[in-house]
Every structure is written in structure tokens, then in C-alpha cells.
Design goal:
alpha/beta, globular, 5 helices
């Protein structure tokens, strides 16, 4: 990291890691990302805080169909109603990311993408 990497943080290096800093960190992560994909989360997960930040920042939030179909959690439907996208395959993820031309022609309709079903 020191020679070729970059560390981005709103906290100075001398700060201790504290649990209450995580939501702020999640906001930075969503702001630096093209999208947030929530594969699995409980109702009180920090991943959902990141999804909230992402939606406020105009970033895409993606949720697998398997989470929507899971009767044990309610958050997926809530996020879809807020604008999150549902996907079943990797190809659908790439199409959503490319929809806004954020990837600038890295993927197009002619590319063959291995797809997999989300369990």
C-alpha cells in the first residue's frame, strides 16, 4: 500500500478504530464506488447504511433476486422501492453498470459474459 496504493479516509491515521466510525466509512466507500451490491445482510447490517448513502449519492444499489425471495428478511423489498436494482446474473450486473455509460464501452451487447445463477 505504501508504494503503489492509496488509502482514503476521513480519519487521521492516529485515530483508533471505533465501531461508531463505520457508518461514516460506509458513506466514503459508496461515494467512491460505481455501485453498491448487497449480497447478504441482516436487517441491521452496516451494508444497509452503505446502501442508504449510495442512494442519496445517486449511486446504483444492486440486490440479488435470491435476497428478494428470502422470506426471512424484509430490507430487499424496501430498497427496491427506493430505487435499488434486482439482478439474477453477472451479465445483468454488468448491464446495469453500463446503463449509465460509467464503464465507457467496456461491455456491450456483443460481449459474451459467463453468467451464473445466484443461489
Amino acid at each position: 500500500m505504501e508504494k503503489n496504493g492509496l488509502v482514503v479516509s476521513q480519519f487521521p491515521p492516529c485515530n483508533a478504530v471505533n465501531r461508531w466510525n463505520f457508518p461514516t466509512r460506509n458513506g466514503v466507500m459508496s461515494g467512491l464506488s460505481l455501485a453498491t451490491i448487497i449480497m447478504e445482510a441482516q436487517e441491521s447490517s452496516g451494508a444497509l447504511k452503505q446502501a442508504d448513502y449510495a442512494l442519496k449519492q445517486g449511486r446504483d444499489v444492486l440486490i440479488p433476486q435470491s435476497a428478494i425471495d428470502n422470506p426471512l428478511i424484509q430490507w430487499p423489498k424496501k430498497y427496491v422501492s427506493k430505487g435499488a436494482h434486482v439482478f439474477k446474473t453477472l451479465k445483468e450486473v454488468l448491464q446495469i453498470l453500463n446503463r449509465n455509460k460509467l464503464i465507457l464501452n467496456k461491455f456491450d451487447d456483443e460481449i459474451v459474459v459467463s453468467t451464473f445463477e445466484m443461489d
